[in-house]
Amino acid sequence: MRKPALVVSDLDGTLIKPNTAALEPRTLELVEGLLDAGIPFMPASGRQHPNVRWLFEPLAERLSFVSENGVLAHIGDELVYRATLEHDLGLEIVRTILERSNCEPMVSGEKTYYITPESPTFLRYLEEGCGFVVTRVDDLEDIGEPYGKLSAFYPEGIGVDRFFWAERFGNRCAVTTSSDKWLDMMPSGVNKATARAVVLERLGIDPADVIAFGDAENDVEMLKLVGCPIAKANGAPGALECALYTTDDVVSSLDRILNGPGYDW
Question: Which of 29, 33, 40, 140 is nearest to 91 (CA)?
């Protein structure tokens, strides 16, 4: 068994079921066990930082975090990286989302999501279903802080609209999907791997010594840049293509690292 210098895991669809509002006690027990064994753990998620920190609250000060698909990175409570969109581009994206009738816009700030929901169901989904910190505003063009990640939520699924966004903005910003309902746009070149690289440099960890778990297209860059990439067996084709191992259950895989044979690479 090779002891990893760090374990990184995506959340929705990987460590937990999509849109889960809390972690299972067993998951927290295993993460704490890894930390106590000298193996750092880093959640890497498209979710907002306050929500991810809350999920791991008993252990949060001992963790590093990548959130908003790589727009933010924290070591404990210290913000060590933040990427922002050029303001005029952000305005154009916001206006384009608002022009479309089949999706809801959401703007990610450092500590909250900004929304102007047309549907009360969307607000309940964010606050009650996912446990997100949400601020309702009258105008998404004036939120009082730089644009980070801009998202379009498709209640009925993104479908072929992903091609519209890629063609319209793909040469000016990063366009990715974090599920079949969420399409995210961030500054060009920004992804979970870029934010994670900042944390690894600060912590003095070689990416070759890292295990990472992921399932979706927004995990691909992160999986490619570690020594031991592990994809969910039901993951997206891009995640599976770059995986050294697959797993049906990441919680069981954490137990394997902590109490079992671990992984070799």
Answer: 140
Q: Are 233 and 247 in contact (CB under 8 A)?
A: yes
Residue 166 C-beta-side C-alpha neighbours within 13 Å: 8
Query: Mean pLDDT per segment of 10 residues, for the chain of length 265 residues?
Result: 95 88 93 98 96 95 96 97 96 96 94 88 89 93 94 95 96 91 94 95 97 94 96 96 97 97 97
Residue 238: predicted pLDDT: 95
Q: Which residue has the tokens 């993104």?
A: 158
Total domains present in the chain: 2
Helix (H) or strand (E) holding 215: none
Query: Rounded to an integer, what distance in angstroms lies between the CA atom of residue 170 and that of residue 174?
Result: 6
Tell me, yes or no, whether 44 lies in a domain. yes
The number of CA neighbours under 13 Å toward the Cβ of 73 is 20
In the chain, which ranges are E strands?
Answer: 6-9, 41-43, 64-67, 72-75, 78-82, 104-108, 113-115, 134-136, 150-153, 173-177, 182-187, 210-214, 228-232, 245-247
Q: Which residues contact 48 (CB under 8 A, 6 or more apart)?
A: 67, 68, 108, 111, 112, 113, 132, 133
Please name the residues in contact with 144: beta carbons below 8 A apart, sequence gap of 6 or more. none
Distance from C-alpha of 265 to C-alpha of 232, rounded to nearest angstrom? 18
In a domain, 172, yes or no: yes
264, part of any domain: no
Domain assignment of residue 137, given as a range: 87-187
How far is the C-alpha of 102 from the C-alpha of 166, rounded, in Å?
17
Q: How far apart are the first and last CA of the chain?
A: 9
